[in-house]
Amino acid sequence: MRLRCRNDWGQSFYNLQSGRTNMRHLATATTAFFSGILFLGSGLMNSSTQEPEPLVGTVHQMAELKEQLAETKKPWLQFLDVPSMYCGVYHLKAGSQDGQAPHGDDEVYYVESGKAKFVAGDKESDVVPGTILFVPAKMEHRFHSIEEDITLLVFFARAPKPSEK
Question: N or C: less crowded end of the chain, CB within 10 Å?
Protein backbone atom coordinates (compact mmCIF):
# COMPACT_ATOMS: atom_id res chain seq x y z
CA MET A 1 0.00 0.00 0.00
CA ARG A 2 1.07 3.57 -0.48
CA LEU A 3 -0.06 6.78 1.16
CA ARG A 4 -1.54 9.61 -0.87
CA CYS A 5 -3.02 12.88 0.30
CA ARG A 6 -6.13 13.74 -1.66
CA ASN A 7 -8.43 16.68 -2.06
CA ASP A 8 -12.23 16.37 -1.88
CA TRP A 9 -12.41 15.35 -5.56
CA GLY A 10 -10.09 12.39 -5.07
CA GLN A 11 -7.17 13.97 -6.90
CA SER A 12 -3.82 13.04 -5.39
CA PHE A 13 -1.69 16.02 -4.45
CA TYR A 14 1.04 14.13 -2.64
CA ASN A 15 2.32 10.62 -3.22
CA LEU A 16 4.49 9.32 -0.38
CA GLN A 17 5.97 6.57 -2.56
CA SER A 18 7.31 8.97 -5.19
CA GLY A 19 7.70 11.94 -2.82
CA ARG A 20 6.13 14.28 -5.36
CA THR A 21 3.56 16.99 -4.88
CA ASN A 22 1.04 17.97 -7.56
CA MET A 23 0.59 21.69 -6.89
CA ARG A 24 -2.33 21.97 -9.36
CA HIS A 25 -4.31 19.41 -7.37
CA LEU A 26 -3.16 20.96 -4.10
CA ALA A 27 -4.55 24.31 -5.26
CA THR A 28 -7.82 22.57 -6.21
CA ALA A 29 -8.09 21.32 -2.63
CA THR A 30 -8.43 24.93 -1.50
CA THR A 31 -11.78 25.26 -3.24
CA ALA A 32 -13.35 23.15 -0.49
CA PHE A 33 -12.72 26.24 1.59
CA PHE A 34 -15.65 28.09 -0.04
CA SER A 35 -18.05 26.30 2.34
CA GLY A 36 -16.03 27.51 5.33
CA ILE A 37 -14.80 24.01 6.09
CA LEU A 38 -11.36 22.76 5.17
CA PHE A 39 -10.86 19.00 4.99
CA LEU A 40 -7.33 17.74 4.70
CA GLY A 41 -7.23 14.00 4.42
CA SER A 42 -4.93 11.17 3.67
CA GLY A 43 -6.10 7.94 2.21
CA LEU A 44 -4.49 4.60 1.61
CA MET A 45 -4.40 3.38 -1.97
CA ASN A 46 -4.54 -0.35 -2.52
CA SER A 47 -1.59 -0.80 -4.89
CA SER A 48 -3.03 -3.94 -6.47
CA THR A 49 -6.43 -2.43 -7.37
CA GLN A 50 -5.53 1.29 -7.34
CA GLU A 51 -8.82 1.84 -5.51
CA PRO A 52 -8.86 4.37 -2.69
CA GLU A 53 -9.70 3.15 0.76
CA PRO A 54 -11.73 5.44 3.07
CA LEU A 55 -10.14 8.83 3.80
CA VAL A 56 -9.01 9.68 7.29
CA GLY A 57 -8.24 13.27 8.09
CA THR A 58 -8.77 16.36 10.12
CA VAL A 59 -11.45 19.00 9.79
CA HIS A 60 -10.84 22.66 10.56
CA GLN A 61 -13.39 25.45 10.63
CA MET A 62 -11.97 28.65 9.17
CA ALA A 63 -13.92 30.78 11.64
CA GLU A 64 -12.31 28.92 14.55
CA LEU A 65 -8.83 29.21 13.01
CA LYS A 66 -9.33 32.96 12.58
CA GLU A 67 -10.38 33.26 16.25
CA GLN A 68 -7.28 31.32 17.35
CA LEU A 69 -5.10 33.53 15.16
CA ALA A 70 -6.63 36.71 16.63
CA GLU A 71 -5.93 35.43 20.16
CA THR A 72 -2.22 35.03 19.35
CA LYS A 73 -1.94 38.65 18.13
CA LYS A 74 0.48 37.35 15.48
CA PRO A 75 -0.01 37.30 11.69
CA TRP A 76 0.59 33.52 11.26
CA LEU A 77 -1.12 30.45 12.71
CA GLN A 78 0.10 27.04 11.56
CA PHE A 79 -2.57 24.37 11.98
CA LEU A 80 -1.22 21.40 10.03
CA ASP A 81 2.26 19.90 9.80
CA VAL A 82 2.86 16.56 8.08
CA PRO A 83 5.96 15.26 6.25
CA SER A 84 4.74 16.40 2.82
CA MET A 85 3.26 19.79 3.64
CA TYR A 86 2.22 22.32 6.24
CA CYS A 87 -0.64 24.82 6.28
CA GLY A 88 -1.58 27.94 8.10
CA VAL A 89 -3.66 31.08 8.16
CA TYR A 90 -1.90 34.39 7.47
CA HIS A 91 -3.52 37.72 8.32
CA LEU A 92 -2.33 41.23 7.51
CA LYS A 93 -4.12 44.39 8.61
CA ALA A 94 -5.01 47.19 6.18
CA GLY A 95 -2.03 49.50 5.68
CA SER A 96 0.44 47.06 7.23
CA GLN A 97 3.67 45.79 5.68
CA ASP A 98 4.26 42.16 4.69
CA GLY A 99 7.73 41.42 6.01
CA GLN A 100 8.13 37.86 4.77
CA ALA A 101 11.27 36.61 3.04
CA PRO A 102 11.45 33.93 0.34
CA HIS A 103 10.77 30.41 1.56
CA GLY A 104 12.49 27.14 0.66
CA ASP A 105 9.17 25.47 -0.22
CA ASP A 106 6.57 25.95 -2.95
CA GLU A 107 3.41 27.58 -1.66
CA VAL A 108 -0.19 28.24 -2.60
CA TYR A 109 -2.18 31.14 -1.13
CA TYR A 110 -5.98 31.20 -1.11
CA VAL A 111 -7.39 34.66 -0.37
CA GLU A 112 -10.29 34.18 2.07
CA SER A 113 -11.01 37.88 2.60
CA GLY A 114 -9.56 41.32 2.01
CA LYS A 115 -8.09 43.38 -0.79
CA ALA A 116 -4.43 44.03 -1.62
CA LYS A 117 -1.79 43.80 -4.28
CA PHE A 118 0.67 40.92 -4.56
CA VAL A 119 4.06 40.88 -6.24
CA ALA A 120 6.02 37.73 -7.06
CA GLY A 121 9.21 38.20 -9.02
CA ASP A 122 8.39 40.91 -11.56
CA LYS A 123 4.63 40.18 -11.72
CA GLU A 124 2.06 42.16 -9.77
CA SER A 125 -1.58 41.17 -9.25
CA ASP A 126 -4.64 42.49 -7.49
CA VAL A 127 -5.91 40.01 -4.93
CA VAL A 128 -9.49 39.71 -3.68
CA PRO A 129 -11.46 36.92 -2.03
CA GLY A 130 -11.26 33.74 -4.10
CA THR A 131 -7.85 34.52 -5.62
CA ILE A 132 -5.41 31.57 -5.66
CA LEU A 133 -1.70 32.35 -5.96
CA PHE A 134 1.20 29.97 -6.55
CA VAL A 135 4.76 30.94 -5.57
CA PRO A 136 7.70 28.65 -6.36
CA ALA A 137 10.32 28.06 -3.70
CA LYS A 138 12.85 30.85 -3.13
CA MET A 139 10.96 33.46 -5.21
CA GLU A 140 10.78 36.98 -3.76
CA HIS A 141 7.14 37.81 -3.04
CA ARG A 142 4.97 39.92 -0.76
CA PHE A 143 1.59 41.53 -0.29
CA HIS A 144 1.45 45.33 -0.41
CA SER A 145 -1.03 48.20 -0.75
CA ILE A 146 -3.31 46.34 1.66
CA GLU A 147 -6.61 48.24 1.39
CA GLU A 148 -8.69 45.86 3.54
CA ASP A 149 -7.51 43.39 6.19
CA ILE A 150 -6.46 40.28 4.26
CA THR A 151 -6.79 36.70 5.49
CA LEU A 152 -5.07 33.94 3.55
CA LEU A 153 -5.05 30.18 3.73
CA VAL A 154 -1.48 29.06 2.93
CA PHE A 155 -0.31 25.61 1.79
CA PHE A 156 3.42 24.86 1.73
CA ALA A 157 4.71 21.80 -0.16
CA ARG A 158 7.96 20.73 1.44
CA ALA A 159 10.90 20.64 -0.92
CA PRO A 160 12.58 17.22 -1.17
CA LYS A 161 15.75 16.87 0.88
CA PRO A 162 18.92 16.56 -1.24
CA SER A 163 19.10 12.85 -0.37
CA GLU A 164 15.53 12.34 -1.74
CA LYS A 165 16.09 13.94 -5.17
Answer: C
